Amino acid sequence: MSILKAALPEKEIITHVKKLDGKTPGGDLQDKWSKYKSEMKLVNPANKRKYNILVVGTGLAGGSASATLAELGYNVKTFCIQDTPRRAHSIAAQGGINAAKNYQNDGDSVQRLFMDTIKGGDYRAREANVYRLAEVSTNIIDQCVAQGVPFARDYGGLLTNRSFGGAQVSRTFYARGQTGQQLLLGAYSSMMRQVAKKQIELYTNKEMLDLIIIDGQARGIVIRDLKTGEIETHTGEAVVLCTGGYGNVFFLSTNGKNSNATAAWRCHKKGALMANPCFTQIHPTCIPASGEYQSKLTLMSESLRNDGRVWVPKSGDDKRPSDEIPEKDRDYFLERMYPAYGNLVPRDVGSRAIKRVCDEGRGLGATGRAVYLDFASAIDRLGNKNISDKYGNLFDMYETITGESPYNKPMRIYPAIHYTMGGLWVDYDCMSNIPGLFVLGEANFSDHGANRLGASALMQGLADGYFVIPYTIGNYLANNSLDSVSDTADEFKVSIDEVKKKNESLLKIKGSSTVLELHRELGAVMWDLVGMARTKESLNEALEKIPQIKEKFWNDLNLQGTENNLNKSLENAARLADFIELGELMALDAYDREESCGAHFREEYQTSEGEPLRNDEKYAYVSAWEYVPDSVSILHKEDLNYEHVEMTQRNYK
Amino acid sequence: MANFITVSSVLKKIIIAITGISLFLFLIVHLLGNITIFTGSPPGRDFNAYAHFLESFGILFTIAELGLLGFFGLHIITALYTNFINYKSRESRYAVSNFAGGKSKKTYASTSMVITGVVVMAFLIWHVLQFRFGPYYETIYASVNGGEPVRDLYRLITEEFSNLWVVLGYTVSLSLLSLHLGHGFWSSFQSLGIYGKTFTRVTYSMSYLLGLIISLGFLVIPLYIFWIN
Amino acid sequence: MSDVINLNLQVWRQENENSDGDFHYYSMKDVPVDISFLEMLDILNENLTKSGVEPISFDSDCREGICGTCGFVINGVAHGPMARTTVCQLHMRHFKDGDTLVIEPFRATPFKIVRDLVVDRGSFDKIIQAGGYVSINTGNGPDANSILIGKEDAEEAFDSAACIGCGACVASCPNASAALFTSAKISHLLQLPQGQVEERARVKSMVDKMDDEGFGACSNHGECEAVCPKGISIKNIANMRRSLIKSIVK
Predict the structure, then answer these.
(1) Residue-wise pLDDT tens digits, A264-279
(2) Are C37 and C28 in contact (CB under 8 A)?
(3) Which CATH number fits domain A284-416: 3.40.50.300, 3.90.700.10, 3.40.50.10170, 3.40.50.150?
(4) Do chain C and chain A touch with ≥3 beta carbon pairs under 8 Å?
(5) CB-based contact (8 Å) between C215 and chain B?
(6) pLDDT mean across residues, chain A
């Protein structure tokens, strides 16, 4: 499909001349959101029940949006691919959720959280969005506590906080190492309350496979019942996509096995712009891969870096066991390189530092792809009991997987793909360029710029769902007259045909390569060439190799079974087909962005100290790609204008 | 009855627990009364005197008997009905079933409560027919009932427990009772919502022992009688 | 990759909810002991696919033991032999060379078998819908620190709230009772001031729903606690019963 040829020295990227408009409201940064809210058109309570809203996905964003929209009186239909809406991968977030509550009296404020997020994102996020995120963060905590989320407390009964990477204040609320789970279950229970009230119609085991656009507006979705294979359609006045990120492009990531980009990618193919796809975050503290059969990587919460010290032996030849290496032969390289932040540097900085020492040959074990995260001094200082209270379940998890106890031996960690900052482009209203298609949470290109701070994903998912969409969707519905549509419309028929044909064609290939093999192949290319550090050459190579994988996929796929019942291989194959195309776009985006920023690290562009070197002159924009069938995607640019923040070189020393 | 069926499973278990604990207390009283078999002269005098003392309550005694019957009935019917629901809740059975160990309190006793219960029920019917409604012998003691005749249950017991098959039947039934009590005792508290880390550990760890002690206590009589004859 | 073992697998295969299932036998050679149980099944599925047989359907997602998606019964024990471990976190180092493993889906009438080892646990949602929430609309919460909750109360509430909804409690219960699942939610909420407001209505409604869905009655086997990946205590069941008695007596 792609006309990109490796032979071409320079890729021809067509840039759309008209600049994208994020529709940020005017006024002072501090007042934008409240002013905007007060000026929005409202939907009369009696009219709300006339609107059908289709929410796809039931993670933090989807769960909170479904519940909140239903509470307001909209008719909500919620779809998820799992057997129950309590399973989405938000559940695996361990560390916590940020909020500018300043309960610790350590100088935190909305302004400071805003600045930290902008800076952490390396000035590639939309200013007004980030400010709004920081602003509503405090409401999220109130909301969750009211729902009964058992956040950690002090003996006095007040909420307690921990600090997290990229911040100098303690603003992270947590529920042991299962914060994501508790927040998700909070949203889920609110959603269940609305299901009981018949305000939400719940559809489980359903996968969205296409978006229906009628008269330029998102008006419906086509879904596949994963149990029976039946293709169904649903119509509505708005579609809210909350389908998470696409980290599984890399095959090995910390994402759940079912996390996929299919719903988002099908919207992209219907015209929704894909923004900053190359901004993928690497998480520094994951359990290293042990062998070829590894199916996923397990993250160890970044909060561990509060008390754990990262080190490698000073010499790569030092093969002694950790406890026999004296202090003088250890290199606590994060503390050495970044004295101010030490082990708490942002994720991208930490990850690259780890990669650097491993590239120097000082990595641990047979693979040489691991460093120590050592708790010995924290245990000396605080005692086993305190450490166990804080990290008990993480330590247990580590021991379950590796068979080693972090109480006695330092953990081994290595970076892994964790989160994707890129996603479908949305304006200030969280609406994509397709009217009526809203995108929330990790699925949108989000408020994190080129790099997300720890404990901010939960914050963003819930901010979008609880506090942004309920306002902006009303504004959209009140401002647009939407004729009723029927699911017998031609647009649905065409789409159902396409979806069916696609599944049938996958089953017809009858080749010899399994979905898993092809996915691994894609993952290896993505990790090696479009991973933690990228170069023009590596991206060129990726752009050459990915189409080959695509070709192999469509000619040599071995897929068993039928489409008329539960067929996980078929689901995975269809998702992989989309991942391959998305992977290619990621490489193209990384190729286009000839600078380093945040998690996007082009080796050609770095400071003498190995830090990312931005090019604000040329690349202070959001790259939003338009899908063009059988050709190279067209680049749309949204310029990032910083009115309130001065763009500086990030410095965590 | 319809109302009973619609009572929630949790309440049914509470009914089973309350009746169970009551029956357990009855067993203790019964066991204490049995001690009289070993005292008094001639042998059986105290025992027959005790039986006569109970009967002398007249209508009150009958009410107590009926009450006891009611508790048994409620315990059994509720348990059987619950068991029927439980059976339906897993229509396709496991090919392999096992014990997880660790914190599990699942035992052969806990999984066979309905079997041990039914056997014990059958045993009780037999036991009541055997003695309460068995042959009526009389005897006379100077010091009992003012010298008037009283029922000579002791003779009946001696006759019955001289039979090897009866003794064997008692041994089997009482062993099963011990298992039934072993799970039932601690479980009653749990069913009533009485849980404490220490309390539950203690009641659970003494539960099976208690069941065993009570059963052995009852078993002593047939074995003793069989032995002396 | 230090060690490998050989295994004989006996796996339940069932086409769909209405068809009859039976056991299929597979022998696995050279399984690395460092991989997880699900990765072992991944390998088996790869082999099956390559030999033209449809792979075994089993559910999994996070593979970190938190989403509650995976789960089946290995040799009569839900989630296999290790305590507090889901099958995705169960590693092959806990098995011996030559072991025969019988793998069955979670069986309970309310958990319909979707296919092979995949079951539908939607009935858990219905129990939660019956009252497993605090009735509060978004935006109505008071300042988070205005509700004081002692550290220990918060910790205990958390212990109950840690349930991942995998269904192992039901699967392992000789009565297929959902008491542990239901009581964990009731107990989580009744230990917090936010949840106490609706305690009476909640406990009654959730218990009734649990019965309606066709789950059995709890007779205190405690097997649920032993197989629960989060070690949720049967104390919660006692809490639920006390709460129910309270709701009736009041």
Answers:
(1) 999 999 999 999 999 9
(2) no
(3) 3.90.700.10
(4) yes
(5) yes
(6) 94
What are the pLDDT digits (tens) for B21-68?
A: 999 999 999 999 999 999 998 999 999 999 999 999 999 999 999 999
Which residue in chain B has the smallest CA separation from C216? B86
pLDDT, position A3 = 43
Mean pLDDT value of segment A160-165: 85
Residue B205 belongs to a domain: yes
Neighbouring residues of C32: CB distance < 8 A, sequence distance ≥ 6:
A291, A293, C1, C3, C4, C92
- pLDDT at residue A5, rounded to an integer: 42
Q: In what order do the strands lie in the sheet with C4-13?
A: C22-32, C4-13, C100-104, C73-74, C77-78
Residues of chain A with CATH 3.90.700.10: 284-416
CA distance linking residue A55 with residue A74, whole number of Å:
11
pLDDT at residue A164 in the model: 80
Is B214 in contact with B150 (CB distance < 8 Å)?
Answer: no
Q: What is the pLDDT of residues C143-182, one digit of tens each?
A: 999 999 999 999 999 999 999 999 999 999 999 999 999 9
Residues of chain A with CATH 1.20.58.100: 490-619
Chain C: give the shortest CA distance to residue B219, in Å.
28
Chain C partners of A512 at a C-beta cutoff of 8 Å? 50
Please name the residue of chain A whose CA is at the shortest distance from the CA of residue C113: A227
Tell me whether residues B192 and C245 touch, CB distance under 8 A.
yes
What is the pLDDT at residue A163? Answer: 85
B193 is a domain residue: yes
- pLDDT category of residue A441 using cuts at 50, 70 and 90: very high
Chain C residues near residue B88 by CB distance under 8 angstroms: 109, 214, 216
Cβ–Cβ contacts within 10 Å for residue B28, how many? 12
Q: Are A410 and A520 in contact (CB under 8 A)?
A: no
Instruction: Note down the domain range covering B215.
Output: 7-86+110-228
CB contact under 8 A, B9 and C222: no
Query: Could you tell me the CA-to-CA distances from C17 to A204, A513, C13, C110 in Å, in that order?
Result: 16, 30, 11, 12
Domains of chain C as residue ranges with CATH: 4-115 (3.10.20.30), 121-249 (1.10.1060.10)
Partners of C241 on chain B (C-beta within 8 Å) are 10, 13-14, 191-193
Using only the alpha carbons of chain B, give its radius of gyration.
20
What residue of C is the nearest CA neighbor of A192?
C129
Minimal CA separation from C153 to chain A, in Å = 9
Do chains B and C touch by CB distance (3+ pairs < 8 Å)? yes
How many Å apart are CA A81 and CA A259, to the nearest integer? 10
Choose the closest CB to A258 out of C48, C61, C125. C61
- Total number of residues shown for chain B: 229
Cα-Cα-Cα-Cα dihedral sign, residues A236, A238, A242, A248 = positive
User: What residues of chain C, 226 to 245, have a C-beta less than 8 Å from chain B?
Assistant: 226-227, 231, 234-235, 237-245
Whether B140 maps to a domain, the answer reads yes
Coil, helix or strand at residue C166: coil
Q: Which residues of A are catalytic?
A: 347
Query: How far apart are the C-alpha atoms of A117 and A165, rounded to whole Å?
Result: 11
Residue among A74, A89, A147 with most chain C CBs within 10 A, to mutate: A147
Q: Is the dihedral of CA A517, A522, A523, A529 positive or negative?
A: positive
Contacts 24+ apart (CB under 8 A), A314-318: A314/A362, A315/A362, A316/A360, A316/A361, A316/A362
Residue B208 is assigned to a structural domain of this protein: yes
Give the CATH number of domain A490-619. Answer: 1.20.58.100
The token duo for A467 is 């506090």
Cross-chain residue pair C132–A103, CB shorter than 8 Å = no
User: Which of B29, B37, B14, B36 has the alpha carbon at shortest distance from B64?
Assistant: B29
